[in-house]
Predict the structure.
Amino acid sequence: MSTRLNRLDTTLYINTQLFRITIFAFLYMFNNINSYANGQNAKVSIIMTKAPFTNVLREIEKQTSFRISYTDNVRTEYSHSTYNLNFKEAEVSTVLKFLLGSNCTILYDTQKRIIYLNTIENIDKNDSVPKLNDLSGIVRDKSGNAVPGATIYAKTSNRGTTSDDEGRFRLSGLNRGEKILISSVGFAPKEIIASDKRVIAELNPFINNLSETQIIAYGTTTRRNNTGNVTTVKASEIQDMPVTNPLLAIQGRVPGLEIRQSNGLPGAGISMRIQGANSLINGNDPLILVDGIPYPSQSVIPGLSAGQAISTILGQNGGTNNGQLGSPLSYINPSDIESIDVLKGADATSIYGSRAANGAILITTKKGRIGKPSITFNYQAGFKKLGRRLNLMDSKEYLQMRHEALRNDGMSAPSAFDYDLNGTWDTTVSHNWQQELLGNTGSNMLASISVQSGTENLQTLISGTFYNEDYIFPKYFNKKNDKRGSLHFSITNTSANKKFRITLLGNYLFDDNRLPIEDFVGSALTLPPIAPKLLTEDGSINWQKNASGYETFQNPMAIGLGSYRLKTTSLMSSLNISYELIDGLKVSTNLGFVRLDNDGTGTKPLTSLPPSLVNLGFPNSLQLSQGISTNWNIEPQINYTKKFKKSVFEALVGTTITNLKQFGRNLLGTNFSSDLVIEDLSSASQVQVVSSKNIIYKYNALFGRLTYNYDNKYIFNLNGRRDGSSRFGTENRFHSFGSIGAAWIFTEEKFFRNNVPFMNFGKLRSSYGTSGNDQIGDYIFLSLYSSEPALRPYQGVMGIAPSGLTNPSLQWEEIKKFEVGLETAFMDSRISFNINYALNRSSNQLMPVFLPYSTGFSNIAINLPAKVQNRVWELSISTINAKSPSFSWTTNITLTIPKSKLVAFPNIEKTTFSSTYIVGKSTTLARLFKSAGVNDTTGVYQFYDSKGNITYNPDFDNDRLVVLDLNPNFFGGIQNTINYKNFTLNFSFVFDRRYLPIPYTSLPAGQFNQNEPRFMLNRWQKAGDNATYQKYTSSLQNYLQSIYYGGSDKSYYKTSVLRCSNISLNWDVPNSWKKSLRMDACKFYTELLNPFLFTNNNYGLDPETGNSLPLLRTINFGVRATF
Amino acid sequence: MKLYTNRIKIIPSALAIIALFPSCEKLVDVKIPNNSFTKDVLYSDNRTAIGTLNSIITGISGSAITSNGITTIPILTGLSADEMILANSNYNAAFSAYYQNSLSPTTITSNNIWKDAYKQLYKINDAIEGISKSTTLIPAVKKQLLGEAKFFRAFCYFYLTNLYGDIPLVTSTAFEENSLKRKSSQSDIYQFIISDLKEAKDSLSVQFLDATLLNQTKEKLRPTKWAASALLSRIYLYTKNWQQAEEESDIVIRNTSLFSIDSLNAVFLKNSNEAILQAQSIGGLSNTVYAQYYYLPNGSEPNYNHPLYLSKHLLNSFEVDDNRKIKWLNKSTAPNGQEYWYPFKYQHYEAIQSYDPLTEYYMILRLGELYLIRAEARAQQNKNALALEDLNVIRNRAGLKNSNSNNTSEIIDDIIHERQVELFAEWGDRWLDLKRTNTIDNIMPPISVEKGGQWSSYKKYYPIYIEEILYNPNLTQNSGY
């Protein structure tokens, strides 16, 4: 025990350098070799005569599962002895004592099943510690492959080295009996005792390890000692997954974190919610920090949805405005990420104060390690296909529907506009538009190179990645694709006495994404199978003109002639300087800079417009949108650690100064003399500034944390923060937040250890605290006036108008978080089970309140005492199903059960939300008409009104009788890793169960040029029919009923989805090959994304993305080699 | 190495110590974004202060018809009265309630003019507050701007009280107070309008001003002392102060150097001799929204985009040889032979580019109306000969012979009739005249039935939208609703 305590100070020494943390964490975790006594109880029966020493040992090894390791001294002393033995069912210790006499020590390591033998004089001589001059050895993994670049470190004598390309290392000047730590990324650290001159250290893969480092706010800790709710995903788990957005790789791996992707394109918007949405109308994004620097969760391109040439193809990003499209996180290269830590409860997030009401996601990039220079190449390439298809009507069914629709409308003959029936279109053709528009095979390729080297004082890492993706859309006029390149580097410099350290990190990424303006999915699902072919023989757009020369349909290929090109540059850089003034007192400063540039070019050439519109003078147009977000951040901190007997105190104080600038503008040029010059704004005959944006956000805070750890059993944590944000008026600019957390590692209690031996780890933790939400938009407390852009300003002077009524006393939305969690591990950590209950209540919701118009405006933003509650159960189970040198299988399951509730909303009727929310119900809900099916006489949809009567025209205010909770009932993921010799197989699933809308088209079925899914065949045809869908119509009659039906309970479906998100198979090249190729590591792998999914919802292309481009089925093959 | 570490350890320590000062106001103080202004800045600079008035002028004129705001007054009142026909109620649900005189407190579109007018009033009150306090504006500019603001405040209140009756009188930007304002009586509103216009008359320039408010121009785009007098004469006419109505209109009519009666073709052109105040379109693509909105290409029938045409009541009011029927009306003859007549005062309906010069401006006040005001005011004072003189100026311009009425009551009837055919489709004069002359309850019942509605006397005022009353507990609904 005492040795453990001696090291506690170093354990809590907050340090950002990964390898050292690993070592420290390891130190106080894995020093239990002496404490295990089971080994000597093993029974052996040995009857031998004149047996040499080594033979006896071999016999013991045979009869027990122990290996016996001994020092050179033991060998020298005993190897020439022979023994006569007659033991029956004797304890191993008895036998060994007989063999060795009393001047030897015997150490039993039951975990590793090794018995160490050593002569006593070598371990301990009272006055002087003898030197074990040289220690040499090999570090290898379970399959015997060398582990190059592993860190070998002797704490006492402060010596360290790294293994060479064959896993070999040599340390000199060590003390005998000293503990040597061996660690390498992706492996559990291992401790050996410097007794032998030669060792073979076998490292186990990093699984279920409680000493795994967790990045927390302003520091690190271990899973064992963390009082907060943090889930860590390591690079090794998500490495090589062909995704452009790192968050997609952790979907299903983090309980409590819900990730939804809006479509399957690179750069697409994703919504991230940690433990539900706390704000009713303001931002619900988690705080995102990359190496400690805030990173924007929403892009700043203004007016993306301004409707001109700019496209909404990248999809919603979970923001508050419709203009927030595409995910900025897709501009962080996933392969440069070392770990992603998701911080959830009050204890983990309070120190981030006003920004972390919605949790925090900490992304840590890779850094150089101590080791010989190595270079790693990675290359992967593969294909993408559309996975599922929607079952649509075929030509015959479409025509039948149309004829029936006309009959229902009382039309005896098709009108001049029914081109599909009046002979204008060829009705004998049959197109599969899903095949023609979405059936292409996309491709993708990733190549990266990474060079790293490190001495004790200087570690560097430089890596570069190139990625290319082609889309599945028709490659007709433009080859649309996404190209991205990125550069990452890290330099860490440490002074000789290790007191001063400086780390410089940099990430640069450039992305050139050429997208069509629309994703073709809409056209693929609605174009009738008998629609004309899209291109004429000569390759031009086929408009299938009618007799008077007008186009008979909107050709999707023409839309494809317009393009949306989004060029993005992201630059992130951080500098961390730290100095240990005296033992335990460290000052450090983190300086960071992030710049994200989006440059969008949308073009709508004349060729993309129907010729008749061009004749009417519709112009070609160019929309340029630019968004720049720059953020600098300074965070100086002082950290003090003091140990006192069994207690360890740690104190941290620091301050944050943040400055975020967002600049954006959106220009529209129209009427270019030719499509050829459409990308040149100066060739436009008319240029208009559609919108501009210029925002500065400043943020300053003082924070502190006090941690007290008693004997590694009881841990208390106190966080406090005083925050100031420029988003609030002077009177409410500052606010304090705090939390208290405690953990009790009950398995450290003697009584527990003795009585529940199968449980090797158990921790109960709880925390309570506050954090806030300042995602309310900038300057909204200020009365501001802005220009009214006009093509022809009044007398040349632009109008200026107030933006609205403002409330200078706006306040934070405050959230109170409570959580309690149990973390356990059983049977040598072969099973670990964690459960967390979180109860978060946010109040002081900032919402618009109605005013009479006689005040000039319809509403004003006021903090309302509305209370939103999120109650979340988070579970995770990890098991090691099989574990042997040649075969292992681990499973990890996460499950989240969220429940949101609007607890209170006084005077809800005076707000704009009275028709949206209901007190006592979920905050994510749908209020729907109650469908009364199809009237069997008229064939029209009917509904119940509030009095229970049946009506065709339900009232929006009173008759939305059905309330559905749109939160998932549960969601989660399952990950499996199976190792067999050189093969590793991973397969992951994500699952959820929730109500999803059925993506009906709003027009009644039977319209011209509008195909329908086959399930719409179940329609009313004649009196007495008991049909699901109303009668077909080619006109707009019953249009309202069709709209009401889309807003009725029949438009939602309880959907269960089990999606296989990823399957990967790795093959490690055998050692002999590597040796002959002079490689340190080499693996071939294949990655399969979204190979299949099971669902009971077949109403749309994909349950997650509805009827926008689904997540694509991707297969990639790759090789990763290190030299 | 020792030296190296000693020196460099100062850097993080110093940084930490400097920055560990308590949170500082300065660190979270932000400058205003450079695309926005605060009130202080806005009203301290001549050009930006002028910008606020420009926003008010353009808010009142030329907004999209679809917004149903102040710009839509001629259409909505024309539908409510006997001027215009809505071809199909499905074409525009908002118009349909006005057309069939079936507005109710729950008809959300009954709120549109109200909403728009009070929004402009907020901007106006804000401008008056800001400009009055400003010490940095050039005095002449400040004076003109205050005059303009008061002119437009009177203008907005004139339409609010004529359309809704008694209304809350909002004179500041204090929303807490304004959200609880009780109604003021129509006569109080008129008193307020008159005092605003008198102040405006004193403040406003006697010459038309350019965008700097310092130089003279031929562009009739900003209110002048004459505009204030013109509006004041209309107020006096409505409040039956005949003598003052005559005096104020007389002031304008006698200023022949700026204003004179134009030919029918020229009245609505920009800067016409007849114009007392016009507003310029700020949209790049049309001269006026009205011309584009009313225009029905020959051979076509009313449709979603052009659902209106003129009622036979108006058409039949034109005397046979009235040139206005030729010059200010146009028609489309549908294939079935039916004629759809529509207003053609603004004739330049063609789409233009923002670099094309404008040819027509929105007419806000014009001399023709003042002749008719003076005529009516004179007739009411039994100055029949003078009244006829004024009336005949308008009749003769339209190619009509002098009126041969000779008693006061006949002359007044003639004038009201002349107003119907002279001022149609401009600023809702017909609807307002029907109420002002107390003829509405005689004329509307059959017309309302014709339009598929039912007339009741209370319908002469539009209802106050239900939510307006919900959010202002002191506000009462107009009687009848």
About this structure: Residues 169 and 1096 of chain A are 57 Å apart (CA to CA). Chain A has a mean pLDDT of 83. The longest strand of chain A covers residues 684-710. The radius of gyration of chain A is 34 Å.
